[in-house]
Specification:
about 300 residues; alpha/beta; Rossmann fold; six-stranded mixed sheet; four-stranded parallel sheet; 11 helices; 10 strands; about 40% helix; globular
Protein backbone atom coordinates (compact mmCIF):
# COMPACT_ATOMS: atom_id res chain seq x y z
CA UNK A 1 0.00 0.00 0.00
CA UNK A 2 1.71 3.19 -1.18
CA UNK A 3 2.18 6.10 1.23
CA UNK A 4 0.81 4.00 4.07
CA UNK A 5 0.92 5.28 7.63
CA UNK A 6 1.86 1.87 9.07
CA UNK A 7 5.10 -0.08 8.87
CA UNK A 8 5.87 -3.62 7.80
CA UNK A 9 6.31 -5.23 11.23
CA UNK A 10 8.73 -8.06 12.10
CA UNK A 11 7.58 -11.66 11.78
CA UNK A 12 9.59 -13.79 14.19
CA UNK A 13 9.61 -17.49 15.00
CA UNK A 14 9.45 -17.70 18.79
CA UNK A 15 12.19 -20.00 20.06
CA UNK A 16 10.41 -20.16 23.43
CA UNK A 17 6.93 -21.01 22.18
CA UNK A 18 7.90 -23.19 19.21
CA UNK A 19 8.87 -26.85 19.29
CA UNK A 20 10.52 -29.26 16.82
CA UNK A 21 7.07 -30.13 15.47
CA UNK A 22 5.48 -26.69 15.63
CA UNK A 23 6.41 -23.15 14.60
CA UNK A 24 4.87 -20.27 16.51
CA UNK A 25 5.20 -17.09 14.46
CA UNK A 26 4.85 -13.70 16.14
CA UNK A 27 3.54 -10.82 14.04
CA UNK A 28 4.84 -7.95 16.13
CA UNK A 29 2.19 -5.27 15.72
CA UNK A 30 3.39 -3.78 19.00
CA UNK A 31 6.18 -2.29 16.88
CA UNK A 32 3.82 -0.03 14.91
CA UNK A 33 4.46 3.74 15.35
CA UNK A 34 1.35 4.03 17.53
CA UNK A 35 2.13 0.84 19.46
CA UNK A 36 -0.64 -1.39 18.10
CA UNK A 37 -2.18 -2.94 14.98
CA UNK A 38 -4.71 -0.10 14.94
CA UNK A 39 -2.15 1.89 12.96
CA UNK A 40 -3.00 -0.13 9.85
CA UNK A 41 -6.73 0.25 9.37
CA UNK A 42 -7.00 3.62 11.05
CA UNK A 43 -4.26 4.94 8.77
CA UNK A 44 -6.30 3.92 5.73
CA UNK A 45 -9.47 5.48 7.16
CA UNK A 46 -7.74 8.73 8.11
CA UNK A 47 -6.19 9.08 4.67
CA UNK A 48 -9.56 8.46 3.04
CA UNK A 49 -11.47 11.01 5.11
CA UNK A 50 -8.77 13.69 4.84
CA UNK A 51 -8.73 13.19 1.07
CA UNK A 52 -12.50 13.75 1.19
CA UNK A 53 -11.91 17.12 2.89
CA UNK A 54 -11.98 16.42 6.63
CA UNK A 55 -9.92 18.94 8.60
CA UNK A 56 -10.49 17.38 12.00
CA UNK A 57 -10.59 13.74 13.07
CA UNK A 58 -12.79 12.67 15.97
CA UNK A 59 -11.99 9.43 17.76
CA UNK A 60 -13.80 7.45 20.45
CA UNK A 61 -11.36 5.04 22.01
CA UNK A 62 -10.35 2.88 24.92
CA UNK A 63 -6.85 4.09 24.15
CA UNK A 64 -5.14 2.42 21.19
CA UNK A 65 -7.45 3.65 18.44
CA UNK A 66 -7.10 7.17 19.80
CA UNK A 67 -3.31 6.90 19.77
CA UNK A 68 -3.37 5.65 16.18
CA UNK A 69 -5.70 8.46 15.14
CA UNK A 70 -3.50 11.02 16.88
CA UNK A 71 -0.41 9.67 15.13
CA UNK A 72 -2.11 9.64 11.73
CA UNK A 73 -3.48 13.13 12.26
CA UNK A 74 0.03 14.37 12.92
CA UNK A 75 1.28 12.73 9.73
CA UNK A 76 -1.58 14.19 7.71
CA UNK A 77 -1.49 17.67 9.27
CA UNK A 78 -5.03 17.74 10.67
CA UNK A 79 -6.43 18.29 14.16
CA UNK A 80 -7.52 15.33 16.28
CA UNK A 81 -9.95 15.18 19.22
CA UNK A 82 -10.07 11.89 21.16
CA UNK A 83 -12.75 10.99 23.70
CA UNK A 84 -11.77 8.21 26.10
CA UNK A 85 -13.70 6.66 29.00
CA UNK A 86 -12.68 7.15 32.62
CA UNK A 87 -10.91 3.77 32.73
CA UNK A 88 -8.52 4.66 29.90
CA UNK A 89 -4.93 4.09 31.10
CA UNK A 90 -2.88 7.20 31.78
CA UNK A 91 -0.11 5.74 29.61
CA UNK A 92 -2.51 5.76 26.65
CA UNK A 93 -3.70 9.30 27.40
CA UNK A 94 -0.09 10.47 27.57
CA UNK A 95 0.66 8.82 24.23
CA UNK A 96 -2.32 10.54 22.58
CA UNK A 97 -1.17 13.90 23.89
CA UNK A 98 2.42 13.30 22.76
CA UNK A 99 1.12 13.15 19.20
CA UNK A 100 -0.51 16.55 19.68
CA UNK A 101 -4.15 15.49 19.94
CA UNK A 102 -6.73 16.89 22.32
CA UNK A 103 -7.97 14.33 24.86
CA UNK A 104 -11.32 14.41 26.62
CA UNK A 105 -12.28 11.95 29.37
CA UNK A 106 -15.97 11.19 29.39
CA UNK A 107 -18.17 8.35 30.65
CA UNK A 108 -17.48 5.06 32.38
CA UNK A 109 -17.53 2.96 29.19
CA UNK A 110 -16.39 3.21 25.59
CA UNK A 111 -20.05 3.41 24.50
CA UNK A 112 -20.51 6.61 26.53
CA UNK A 113 -17.29 8.08 25.16
CA UNK A 114 -18.46 7.19 21.66
CA UNK A 115 -21.74 9.05 22.05
CA UNK A 116 -19.83 12.09 23.23
CA UNK A 117 -17.52 11.88 20.22
CA UNK A 118 -20.49 11.77 17.85
CA UNK A 119 -21.74 15.08 19.28
CA UNK A 120 -18.68 16.88 17.91
CA UNK A 121 -19.19 15.95 14.28
CA UNK A 122 -19.72 18.81 11.82
CA UNK A 123 -19.09 19.56 8.14
CA UNK A 124 -15.32 19.84 8.71
CA UNK A 125 -14.81 16.68 10.76
CA UNK A 126 -15.29 12.95 10.57
CA UNK A 127 -15.44 10.05 13.00
CA UNK A 128 -12.65 7.50 13.06
CA UNK A 129 -14.41 4.47 14.49
CA UNK A 130 -12.11 2.17 16.47
CA UNK A 131 -13.42 -1.04 14.91
CA UNK A 132 -16.67 -0.78 12.92
CA UNK A 133 -15.83 0.84 9.58
CA UNK A 134 -15.24 -1.19 6.39
CA UNK A 135 -12.34 1.13 5.56
CA UNK A 136 -10.39 -0.35 8.48
CA UNK A 137 -10.41 -3.97 7.41
CA UNK A 138 -8.29 -3.79 4.23
CA UNK A 139 -5.72 -1.91 6.30
CA UNK A 140 -5.62 -4.58 8.99
CA UNK A 141 -5.50 -7.24 6.25
CA UNK A 142 -2.08 -5.98 5.16
CA UNK A 143 -0.49 -7.89 8.04
CA UNK A 144 -1.54 -11.12 6.30
CA UNK A 145 -0.04 -9.80 3.04
CA UNK A 146 3.27 -9.44 4.86
CA UNK A 147 3.08 -12.90 6.42
CA UNK A 148 2.41 -14.54 3.04
CA UNK A 149 5.16 -12.47 1.39
CA UNK A 150 7.55 -13.81 4.06
CA UNK A 151 6.69 -17.34 2.96
CA UNK A 152 4.70 -18.36 6.03
CA UNK A 153 1.34 -20.06 5.45
CA UNK A 154 -0.34 -20.49 8.84
CA UNK A 155 -2.55 -23.41 9.86
CA UNK A 156 -4.10 -21.25 12.58
CA UNK A 157 -4.20 -17.53 13.39
CA UNK A 158 -4.67 -16.41 16.99
CA UNK A 159 -5.92 -12.92 17.80
CA UNK A 160 -7.77 -10.94 20.44
CA UNK A 161 -11.29 -9.63 19.92
CA UNK A 162 -12.72 -6.43 21.36
CA UNK A 163 -15.11 -4.81 18.90
CA UNK A 164 -14.01 -7.16 16.12
CA UNK A 165 -12.08 -4.98 13.68
CA UNK A 166 -8.94 -7.11 13.83
CA UNK A 167 -10.95 -10.28 13.27
CA UNK A 168 -12.58 -8.72 10.19
CA UNK A 169 -9.22 -7.59 8.82
CA UNK A 170 -7.46 -10.92 9.34
CA UNK A 171 -10.36 -12.82 7.74
CA UNK A 172 -10.25 -10.43 4.76
CA UNK A 173 -6.51 -10.96 4.44
CA UNK A 174 -6.81 -14.74 4.55
CA UNK A 175 -9.58 -14.70 1.95
CA UNK A 176 -7.50 -12.44 -0.29
CA UNK A 177 -4.78 -15.09 -0.41
CA UNK A 178 -7.16 -18.04 -0.84
CA UNK A 179 -6.57 -19.08 2.77
CA UNK A 180 -10.20 -18.96 3.82
CA UNK A 181 -9.97 -22.45 5.31
CA UNK A 182 -7.33 -21.37 7.85
CA UNK A 183 -8.69 -21.53 11.38
CA UNK A 184 -8.93 -18.32 13.40
CA UNK A 185 -8.81 -18.54 17.20
CA UNK A 186 -10.65 -15.51 18.57
CA UNK A 187 -9.63 -14.86 22.17
CA UNK A 188 -11.48 -12.78 24.76
CA UNK A 189 -11.34 -12.43 28.52
CA UNK A 190 -14.35 -13.65 30.48
CA UNK A 191 -15.23 -10.09 31.46
CA UNK A 192 -15.45 -8.77 27.89
CA UNK A 193 -16.71 -11.74 25.88
CA UNK A 194 -19.00 -9.98 23.42
CA UNK A 195 -18.11 -12.24 20.47
CA UNK A 196 -18.62 -15.38 22.56
CA UNK A 197 -22.04 -14.06 23.63
CA UNK A 198 -22.95 -13.24 20.03
CA UNK A 199 -22.06 -16.75 18.85
CA UNK A 200 -24.17 -18.25 21.66
CA UNK A 201 -27.14 -16.01 20.83
CA UNK A 202 -26.83 -16.28 17.05
CA UNK A 203 -26.49 -12.51 16.65
CA UNK A 204 -24.61 -9.61 18.29
CA UNK A 205 -25.86 -8.86 21.80
CA UNK A 206 -25.09 -6.14 24.31
CA UNK A 207 -23.24 -7.23 27.44
CA UNK A 208 -24.58 -5.87 30.71
CA UNK A 209 -21.15 -4.72 31.81
CA UNK A 210 -17.42 -4.99 31.19
CA UNK A 211 -15.50 -6.57 34.06
CA UNK A 212 -11.92 -7.10 32.96
CA UNK A 213 -8.52 -5.50 33.41
CA UNK A 214 -8.12 -5.89 29.63
CA UNK A 215 -10.03 -2.64 29.18
CA UNK A 216 -9.16 -2.21 25.50
CA UNK A 217 -11.24 -5.31 24.78
CA UNK A 218 -14.15 -3.53 26.44
CA UNK A 219 -16.73 -3.21 23.65
CA UNK A 220 -20.06 -4.32 25.08
CA UNK A 221 -21.19 -5.49 21.65
CA UNK A 222 -19.10 -6.91 18.83
CA UNK A 223 -19.72 -5.40 15.40
CA UNK A 224 -22.05 -7.19 12.97
CA UNK A 225 -19.26 -7.75 10.46
CA UNK A 226 -17.20 -9.64 13.06
CA UNK A 227 -20.15 -11.87 13.88
CA UNK A 228 -20.62 -12.48 10.16
CA UNK A 229 -17.02 -13.71 9.96
CA UNK A 230 -17.87 -16.46 12.48
CA UNK A 231 -20.59 -17.72 10.12
CA UNK A 232 -18.45 -17.57 7.00
CA UNK A 233 -15.10 -18.71 8.35
CA UNK A 234 -13.70 -21.35 10.72
CA UNK A 235 -13.56 -19.40 13.98
CA UNK A 236 -12.95 -20.86 17.43
CA UNK A 237 -14.08 -18.65 20.31
CA UNK A 238 -11.70 -19.06 23.25
CA UNK A 239 -12.00 -17.43 26.67
CA UNK A 240 -9.23 -16.79 29.19
CA UNK A 241 -9.23 -15.29 32.66
CA UNK A 242 -7.75 -11.91 33.54
CA UNK A 243 -5.12 -13.80 35.52
CA UNK A 244 -4.11 -15.88 32.51
CA UNK A 245 -3.94 -12.77 30.28
CA UNK A 246 -1.80 -10.90 32.79
CA UNK A 247 0.48 -13.87 33.38
CA UNK A 248 0.99 -14.26 29.63
CA UNK A 249 1.91 -10.56 29.33
CA UNK A 250 4.49 -11.02 32.08
CA UNK A 251 5.91 -14.18 30.49
CA UNK A 252 6.09 -12.48 27.10
CA UNK A 253 8.06 -9.61 28.61
CA UNK A 254 10.51 -12.06 30.17
CA UNK A 255 10.77 -14.29 27.08
CA UNK A 256 10.77 -11.69 24.29
CA UNK A 257 11.53 -8.36 25.99
CA UNK A 258 8.32 -6.80 24.69
CA UNK A 259 5.69 -5.26 26.98
CA UNK A 260 2.07 -5.69 25.84
CA UNK A 261 -1.36 -5.05 27.31
CA UNK A 262 -3.45 -7.82 28.90
CA UNK A 263 -5.71 -7.46 25.85
CA UNK A 264 -2.77 -8.83 23.87
CA UNK A 265 -1.81 -11.15 26.71
CA UNK A 266 -5.16 -12.87 26.22
CA UNK A 267 -4.00 -14.00 22.78
CA UNK A 268 -0.64 -15.09 24.12
CA UNK A 269 -2.33 -17.02 26.95
CA UNK A 270 -3.89 -19.39 24.40
CA UNK A 271 -0.38 -20.33 23.27
CA UNK A 272 1.37 -20.34 26.63
CA UNK A 273 -1.38 -22.54 28.07
CA UNK A 274 -1.21 -24.90 25.07
CA UNK A 275 -4.80 -24.64 23.90
CA UNK A 276 -5.75 -28.21 22.83
CA UNK A 277 -6.93 -27.37 19.31
CA UNK A 278 -3.48 -25.95 18.50
CA UNK A 279 -1.56 -29.12 19.27
CA UNK A 280 -1.74 -30.58 15.75
CA UNK A 281 -0.92 -27.32 13.95
CA UNK A 282 2.42 -26.97 12.18
CA UNK A 283 2.49 -23.17 11.73
CA UNK A 284 0.66 -20.93 14.21
CA UNK A 285 0.48 -17.20 13.58
CA UNK A 286 0.05 -15.06 16.70
CA UNK A 287 -1.01 -11.44 16.19
CA UNK A 288 0.88 -9.60 18.92
CA UNK A 289 -1.49 -6.67 18.75
CA UNK A 290 0.46 -4.60 21.28
CA UNK A 291 -1.16 -1.73 23.13
CA UNK A 292 0.13 1.39 24.87
CA UNK A 293 -2.09 1.23 27.95
CA UNK A 294 0.49 -0.66 29.98
CA UNK A 295 3.60 -0.19 32.08
CA UNK A 296 5.50 -2.41 34.48
CA UNK A 297 3.97 -0.40 37.32
CA UNK A 298 0.48 -0.96 35.92
CA UNK A 299 1.11 -4.71 35.61
CA UNK A 300 2.09 -4.80 39.29
CA UNK A 301 -1.09 -2.88 40.18
CA UNK A 302 -3.23 -5.30 38.18
CA UNK A 303 -1.52 -8.24 39.83
CA UNK A 304 -2.27 -6.81 43.26
CA UNK A 305 -5.86 -6.13 42.23
CA UNK A 306 -6.39 -9.72 41.10
CA UNK A 307 -4.76 -11.17 44.20
CA UNK A 308 -6.99 -9.12 46.50
CA UNK A 309 -10.20 -9.95 44.61
Amino acid sequence: MNNSLHINTPLLRSAVLSSPSQNVWLKLEAMQPSGSFKNRGIGVACQHYVAQGARRLISSSGGNAGIATAYCGTQLGVAVHVVVPQNAPQTAINAIQRFGAEVEIHGSTWQEAHQRALSYLDENSCLIHPFDDPLLWPGHATMIDEVVEAGVIPDSVILSVGGGGLLCGVAAGLNKHQLGEVEIVAVETHGAASLHAAIAAGHPVMLDEITTIANTLGAKQVCQAAFDVTEQHSVISHLVSDGQALEASQKFLEDHRILVEPACGATLAAVYNKMPSLQDKRNILVVVCGGMGVSTEQIANWQQQLESA
